[in-house]
Design a protein that fits this description.
Blueprint lengths: L24 E3 L12 E3 L10 E7 L4 E6 L8 E7 L5 E6 L6 E6 L7 E10 L2 E11 L6 E5 L10 E6 L5 E6 L5 E6 L6 E6 L9 E9 L2 E9 L2
Antiparallel strand pairs: 1-2, 3-4, 4-7, 5-6, 5-8, 8-9, 10-11, 11-14, 12-13, 12-15, 15-16
Length: 229
């Protein structure tokens, strides 16, 4: 039990360097009125223990992956809350730790380019405490052309990879070196994200140099591709 006999340090700083050793610690905070918080156990084999501490957050254009750590054991259930800049905290669901004490969640109900806040609500002694708050900015999709895969194409087929920023009308064109359009596809209906289409439909392409053009709204990207025999 914490007490005067095993007190290591008490101060206003948020850091402390102890002598080397395989020690375990209990950490608490005291407010200006002398109210003592619950103790958190810290050991060399685990992250700093709180009700839940954020370990990692990874935001892509279509999902956010989050990992927290809790020292309260595998039986604890946490309520995940989410919010946006314009909305309040809303419960999303319950998550429980794995066998190592990590709580993991993957949010796929996100909007490209938007910011989302996350936090955990954990019941302790009949009261819900909030921990592990973090904000994540979802990567914004943009119009992009990866080009032909592979390049050069060697079998007369021309698979083209590209990404769309949204589901608005978009056109993918294949042109020869003179600028003549040999094939054209409306691809906006594929929606936002990364796609691949075969622009050689209707017959294998002759060996040569070709150009790709992808347009969506006022934006345009181009790429060059070679076809060999």
């Amino acid at each position: 039990m914490p007490g005067p006999s095993n007190l290591v340090v008490a101060g206003h700083d948020t850091g402390f360097v102890d002598i080397p050793g395989d020690f375990c610690y209990k950490l608490a905070a005291v407010d200006v009125h002398g109210n003592l918080s619950r103790y958190a156990l810290v050991s060399p084999s685990a992250p700093t223990a709180t009700l839940a501490s954020l370990v990692s957050v990874n935001a892509q254009h279509d999902r956010v992956r989050l990992v927290w750590y809790t020292s309260n054991g595998s039986g604890v259930a946490a309520t995940l809350y989410r919010r946006t800049i314009d909305s309040d905290w809303t419960p999303v669901g319950k998550i429980t730790p794995d066998g190592s004490g990590y709580l993991r969640y993957e949010d796929t109900a996100v909007t490209s380019g938007a910011r989302f806040g996350y936090r955990l609500g954990i019941m302790d002694s009949g009261e819900e405490f909030f921990a592990g708050e973090v904000w994540a900015e979802v990567l914004a999709l943009r119009l992009a052309m990866r080009g032909a895969t592979p390049n050069p194409a060697s079998d007369g087929r021309l698979w083209v990879e590209f990404s769309l920023r949204d589901g608005s009308p978009a056109r993918l064109e294949l042109m020869d070196v003179a600028g003549r359009v040999l094939n054209s596809r409306q691809v906006g209906s594929l929606g936002p994200g990364t796609h691949a289409v075969d622009l050689s439909e209707g017959g294998a392409l002759r060996p040569g140099i070709y150009f790709l053009r992808l347009t969506q709204g006022a934006s345009e990207v181009r790429a060059r591709v070679a076809v060999i025999g």
